[in-house]
Every structure is written in structure tokens, then in C-alpha cells.
Amino acid sequence: MKIVIKGGVWKNTEDEILKVAVMKCGKNQWARISSLLVCKSAKQCKARWYEWLDPSIKKDE
Questions:
Q1: How many other CB atoms are there within 10 angstroms of residue 40's CB atom?
Q2: Which residue from 33, 50, 56, 58 lies 20 to 30 Å from 21 (Cα-Cα)?
């Protein structure tokens, strides 16, 4: 039996996949979206979106 641990540093390509997937699937389909990112869980995808990638976030410069 092989155990896969999801996580690690987010890559730019993963961010782009996440952005496109959220636009296509919506913000309530995290399990579906995470299936496109083999190394990320639904919880990680949701957190990445709401804490970093969501365009409505105001980032301090």
C-alpha cells in the first residue's frame, strides 16, 4: 500500500490551474477542483484561493 501525502509549496502552474478551475467549476466544488491538482487536497485548494488568489483580496504592498 502506497501512502500519498498532499502538500508542499504551491507552484505557479498549480496556481494557474486553480484559478481556471475556480472560474469553470465555481467556489463550492473544492473536491472536484482538487482532483485536478494531484498533490493538493480540497482544503488546501480552498485555503489557497481565499487566502491568496481570490481577486477580491486586497494585498498590502
A1: 23
A2: 58
